[in-house]
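Batch job 17 of 40 flagged for manual review because the log was empty.
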Amino acid sequence: MAPIHAPSLRVSGVAFAVGETGYLIAEPVRPLLALVPLALAAVAFGLLVLRGEREERRTAALLISLAAATILVPLAFALLGKDYFLDRNLLPALVPLLGALAIAATLRRARRAGAAVCAAIVLYSLGFWVATGFTSSLQRAPYRSVAIDLGEPDAPRAMVTWLLGVGPLRHYLGTHAVQAVPEGQVWFVHEIDVISQDVDMPRTWKLAPGFRRAGETTVDRFTITRYTTKGLAHLPVRSLQKAKIGFRSTRVLLDGIGPEL
C-alpha cells in the first residue's frame, strides 16, 4: 500500500482555496495564502450550524457529502497504490463545495453576517487576482519570442528548457524539433541552447563537457545561453534533463538533425 504524500494534500488544499499558484514552474506552494479564505469558509459553515434552518442545513449537507465522495475516489486509489490524488483530479468536488458555501453565506437568519463573509471572500480573491497579474512566473511563457531569437538551425543543436515549454517551442520553431530521450540513440550536436530562468549560467558547463559559452541573450524573463563546440560532440541527454535552470522539470529538444541539412 503506497502512502499519500503530504505535498499532494497540501497542494490540493491550497489550490482549492486560492487556485493555481505556479508550483509547476518553480513558484513554491504558499499555504499561508490559503488561511484567509479557509478561515472565512469556516466562519460561513459555523453560521450554517448555528443559524441555518433545517432545509438549508440538509441541502448543504447533501452537497458536502457529494464533494466528500468525489474526493474519496482518488483517495481510495492512492491507498491502493495508484496515486491520482492531485488538485486537478479533485476539481469536480469544488462545485458542490462552493454550492454548500453559497448556502452557508446566504442564510435567511444570518443575512448581514453572511454578506460580510461574502464581501471578504470577494475582496480577498480580487486582491489575489491582481497580485497574480503582477507575478511574472505565472504569466504565459514567451516561447514565441524565444523561437524567434533561436532562429533556424545551421548545424545539429539541442535546446534545454522547461518540460511544459517543449510543446510551444516545437510549434513556434516549425523546424521538426523532437524531444530527446536518455535511452536509445546517441546524439551528436554542435550547439546547446539553454533556456533558463533566474539562473547564472557558467562559461564552461560541467554537464556538457567540451562546450563553451558562445553568447547570451535575454527574452522577457528567460535567458538563452548558447554553448558551442568544434565540430560535433556527444549530447549527454540524461545529465541535461537534471540541469538546474530555474524550472521544476527540464527536457531536451533536438533540432537541425536530419537530411534537410
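Reviewer: the log was empty due to a logging misconfiguration, but the result itself is present. The chain has eight helices and six strands. Unflagging and moving on to job 18.
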